[in-house]
Amino acid sequence: DQQVKQNSPSLSVQEGRISILNCDYTNSMFDYFLWYKKYPAEGPTFLISISSIKDKNEDGRFTVFLNKSAKHLSLHIVPSQPGDSAVYFCAASAQGGSEKLVFGKGTKLTVNP
Amino acid sequence: DTAVSQTPKYLVTQMGNDKSIKCEQNLGHDTMYWYKQDSKKFLKIMFSYNNKELIINETVPNRFSPKSPDKAHLNLHINSLELGDSAVYFCASSQVGRGGEAFFGQGTRLTVV
Questions:
Q1: CA distance readout (Å), B84 to A47, B62, B79
Q2: Please, which of A80, B23, B30, B36 could form a disulfide with A111 given CB 3.0 to 4.6 Å?
Q3: What percent of chain B has pLDDT over 90?
Q4: In the structure, what pLDDT confidence band is assigned to residue B40 with cuts at 50, 70 and 90?
């Protein structure tokens, strides 16, 4: 029972273009959403988050959009750089609960020079 | 100066053995976790400790026993290792009230042969 789904296992974009990574969730109790970036043989690194009271959060080249009615969020990376090539995990938590993170399966982003 | 460090990074052992993975965080966080990334790449929470108290136990077999001597340390002991225990185990920590925004260690790749 996947509560957080990333339906695209991989994405390839050209350097300088926009990368859009998508994530869907099913649990209405989730009220905090996070994106993590993971390089091989390393642990996930926190990238950006958004609370359910917002629909957009921006940090430099990274923007996360949240559509609560559709239970969908997306991560936009503009412009994409080769160093952005990694696996991106979407995660969700319920702040009023245990705050454990529920992860999607990840999307492998490749940014081609 | 690593924020969340876990040892060892690689662990190869035979079925039936008992092994431990150690984790330490120097971020002053109240909550620590163990996550497991299986062969299908799903990252799933196993345990969560808050100030040395067990908060989450996600139906993990009794062979897995976390130990938290203080709030900066959370070790994972595994008894009678099985082939299916082969995975990457990640330690993480977070501060309460941050929506589960966790900082992860580099992971321990456990291979049971």
A1: 31, 14, 13
A2: A80
A3: 67
A4: confident
Tokens of A77: 């990376």
Mean pLDDT over each residue of chain A, to the nearest integer: 93
Q: Which of residues 49-108 of A touch B (CB under 8 A)?
A: 49, 51, 87, 89, 91, 93, 95, 98-103, 105-106
Tell me which residues of chain B, numbers 77 to 96, contact chain A at a CB-CB cutoff of 8 Å. Answer: 90, 92, 94, 96
Q: Is A6 on the interface with B (CB under 8 A)?
A: no
Residue A18 · residue A80 · CB < 8 Å = yes
Q: Please give the pLDDT value at position A98.
A: 59
Residue A100 and residue B99: Cβ atoms within 8 Å? Answer: no
What is the token pair recorded at B81? Answer: 């290792």
